[in-house]
Amino acid sequence: MTVYYVxxxxxxxxxxxxxxxxxxxxxxxxxxxxxxxxxSVLLAAGSVYNDQLDxxxxxxxxxxxxxxxxxxxxxxxxxxxxxxIHSLYASNIVIENIKISDTGGAAIYGGSVSNWTVRxxxxxHTGLAGKAGSVTFRTGSNITIENSRINDVNGDGVWIEKINxxxxxxxxxxxxxxxxxxxxxxxxxSNIVISGNVLDQTGxxxxxGVIALVRPVNAVVEDNTIIGGGFGIGAQxxxxxxxxxxxxxxxxxxxxxxxxxxxxxxxTRDYDISGNYIHDxxxxxxxxAAGSTSYVREDIDIHNNVFDDLSQAALKVDRPASGxxxxxxxxxxVTPYSISPAIIAANTFPVSNNTTLxxxxxTLFVHDxxxxxxxxxxxxxxxxxxxxxxxxxxxxxxxxxxxxxLENDSSANGTLLLRRFEGEVVGKDGLTLAxxxxxxxxxxxxxxxxxxxxxxxxGLSGNVSETFVYKISDGVAHHFDTDTLSISIDVNGLxx
Length: 496
Fold this sequence. Notes:
The chain is mainly β and 496 residues long. It has a 23-stranded parallel β-sheet that branches. A 13-stranded parallel β-sheet has the order 3-6-9-11-13-15-18-21-24-27-30-33-36. A hairpin with a 3-residue loop joins strand 43 and strand 44. The longest helix has 17 residues. The protein starts with a strand and ends in a 6-residue tail after the last strand. 45% of the residues are buried.
């Protein structure tokens, strides 16, 4: 197991490369090495490489070949007129702690590969020659992409095709550009987990959607923040697919735009769609198809979701299908469902036990009263108790003012999350907004900092105030409440 060091600024290809004092200089030298299982190729921090790195050799499951970095400073950067890293038939590879940008093709391309891990990799401005997918894997098994950032790419942000075993975890993908571009597309793949990601297409040029799954088998899509695009999750023609506890918003642009869509491009069976917060879009869940296809659509269970701020119905079923739509919470100004008369007559997709937001809150209040009367009653529903927040500051105090919006709130299950602030989604990177008298930054755990803009106080005296409205959740889709933060400012510099 040998560690090879590469430094484009100080290295030489005549060096052995086996110490930091005698590094190699280029990828040409790396490609001439016959890498063995357990070997590592480490790129110097701050170094830049203007070629494609071809990986030709495989590691083993217990001793993968690693491409990483060493030293202190910025991550090493790979530029390339082709792909950043390219491989065919090599398996058991780890790529970590590097940056790939301004490539003509994909940032990473792997064909007929298995057991690859891509982690803590930054991808920016790739696919400039029109090659689809900034991180692309075609044919193989066991691909993990985690804790990485993908931004400003042409074509799909991630393209996965014919892979058995995909883990896409805790990544951020923003702005995959193109009329056929999705943030993430996975075709004909199986045993998929997509979890904990922030996927935002609001700044993309003519995007198609956010997550596109075509003919997935055994897939879980959970705990993601999904924003923008023509649709949120297109999970077409799958088998055994769970879509739950996602926050899906801001999708639109088309009359057919949906948060979750299925039923096109093949038979669709065994879907569980639950716990999602679906808002600020067109349709909610669409069981549909382009044209008059006669695919099977069966055992589709849609339950315990929240639907709010939709221009069309929470549920659309306009092709033959079997399933159920039950125990969801639907805003009173959202149409609950649009189901074709033939399906209603056949009673294959019953609708039951759905409530409005006001009814859900009333139910929670009743459960909370029962729980207070009988603390031993273990079946009482979780409830949130919000408490109004106040901040008093003086205009002559410099710097930001800090606090936490959730520290005086409580929930029965002990979980509190800040979901929306002034109507905007609060992602894992937080949210910054301009107020009437200053700016405020919040994160999803409730921490905030407020900074006065003294130019907005010119000509004022006495006390002025502004109020921010936010929404909190206990992590269960239909358990949430609204709270406020009021900021009082003593313009004269003396708190009252």
